[in-house]
Amino acid sequence: MDAGRGFFGRLHELRRLGLVPGTAAWVAPTAVSVLALEKMEKSGSHADLPKRIQEGRSFLLARRCRDGGWNHGSTRALGYDSESYPETTGIALLALHGTAGPEVTKGLERGEQHLAACQSSEAASWLRLGLGAHGRPTPVADSALTMHGGVMEIALAALAGAAQAGRNPFLV
Amino acid sequence: MKLTRRSWTKTAGLVAAGVVGASCAKPTRVTQPWAPVSIYRAASYSEELYDLVRRIIADHALDVRGKRVVLKPNLVEFDAHTVINTNPKLVHAAFEAFRAAGAAEVRIAEGPGHRRVTLDLADAGGYFATVPKFENVFTDLNLDEITRVALVRPQSRLESLFLPNTVLGCDLLVSMPKLKTHHWAGATLSMKNLFGLVPGGVYGWPKNVLHWAGIPECIADLHSLFPKAFAIVDGIVGMEGNGPIQGTPRNAGVVIAGASPVAVDATCCRIMGLDPARIRYLQLAAGEQNLSEDLIPQHGERIASVASRFAVLPGLEGLRLPG
To answer: Which of A122, B51, B85, B262 is the most buried (most CB within 10 A)?
Structure first.
């Protein structure tokens, strides 16, 4: 599978799972890469897949903020802790589905806090997907959300709704 | 969304579009005076701001009759109660003042760097409640149509940037930042606010390319594309300490404005107790031109009468003004 070999060779070259050559790896690209590689793994397409998926998950666990969730990338700046964002916390939790341990538990707790205070429909959708992937309930009062998003946000909300009904499309 | 990825490589084209001005030529005068800066007291986000912005427009003889004006606030987080975002009251005051001054069109535009759904962010930040029919006058710069613009003498590693056509096509860009310290750049003011012009739809969230290519250098590069931007800085309640997001509110009670973003930012630094000579992006943008206080004419208050020593992170103490 030449195309696959090229893809994985590039990933090795970049170290971790950054998507653009020459840039650092960040949380969201790593998380979506893990999810994509899992789909490939189900088709048994490459022997390196389990290792790469585990590397991606290790990266995510290493980039956890002190508050338990995930920022876009850095956990500290000039000696000060970065705070987590709801969107990145949700997508990281989604990529860490099936992973257990105290770090994940703290991430789930932070995700639940984010969801309870969430005003963004996009963030609420990622959090529902992430928390739901770990079997956590995902209550949210839709009236608390600002809803000015476009097609992508509506589509993401539909995917989150499907996950709540037991059909998480990212985990199929 | 229709994307126009037309590469502009000729300076003449940029001049015709009004995005390249004097700062693209390397300054050779060391002691040339800067454009004046206005410093006005404003104790709160009250109705008085509407008169204050009209006064600023008069001070600087801004003729916007028949022109397209874009107001660029700093929208960062979902929060109407902290001081992360430019206060919507000041932005609405500017919106009304430029319309009253005869502008053919006034738009509010922003492309936040961390959160994707900009209208949600604006709603949570109080913009829908403050600006009537906000959605009709707002452009999400992260999703706007874009054009590739070459950097003529880049300070950063970038050779060009995709930029939103709403901004490239306007006659007057008004940068409306918050008066804040910044944990990497030292200060985030009218020039750093231009990071919000860089479209997330191209560069992603956060706009990592600008950090990768060097924050001070990218600030200077963006300024080189919009040297004639007007600046109105919300210093009524600023942010000190671990800005631009996790800092502490600081009542400074001022609005600072002017036609030279470099001079405005240098003045803001002095008001916060920071030395412009130690802020790298200002040095890059000023080039050989002296940023001495006596070369920046002022309207309204003197710096000394409104200065308030903003707290900075321990690693940034070296940025303080001497004494």
So the answer is: B262
Q: How confident is the model over A76-110, as pLDDT tens digits?
A: 866 778 899 999 999 999 999 999 999 999 999 99
Chain B residues contacting A via beta carbons under 8 Å = 78, 114-117, 119-124, 135, 183-184, 205-206, 208-209, 212, 242, 245-246, 313-316
Chain B hits for A80, CB-CB cut-off 8 Å, are 183, 242, 246, 313
Instruction: Return the bridge partners of B68, or none.
Output: B105
Give the tens place of pLDDT for each residue, A32-51: 999 999 998 888 778 888 98
With respect to residue A133, please indicate whether it lies within any of the assigned structural domains: yes
Instruction: Enter the ipTM.
Output: 0.78
Contact call for residues B223 and B194 (beta carbons, < 8 A): yes
Q: How many domains does chain A have?
A: 1
Domain annotation covers residue A102? yes
The contacts of residue B304 (CB under 8 Å, 6+ apart) are none
* Alpha helices per DSSP H over B60-173: 88-100, 118-124, 127-130, 134-137, 165-168
Domain with A117 in it: 3-164
pTM, to two decimals: 0.86
Q: Which amino acid is at B216?
A: P
Of A23, A28, A119, the CB nearest to B78: A119
Contact flag B313-A85 (C-beta cutoff 8 Å): no
Residue A170 lies in a domain: no
With beta carbons less than 8 A apart as the criterion, state whether B292 and B252 touch.
no
Binned at pLDDT 50, 70 and 90, residue B21 comes out as very low
| B89 and B186 Cβ atoms separated by less than 8 Å | no
Of chain A, the percentage scoring pLDDT greater than 90 comes to 51
How does residue A73 score in pLDDT terms, banded at 50, 70 and 90? Answer: confident
DSSP-derived letter for residue B232 is E
What DSSP element (H or E) covers B222? helix B215-225
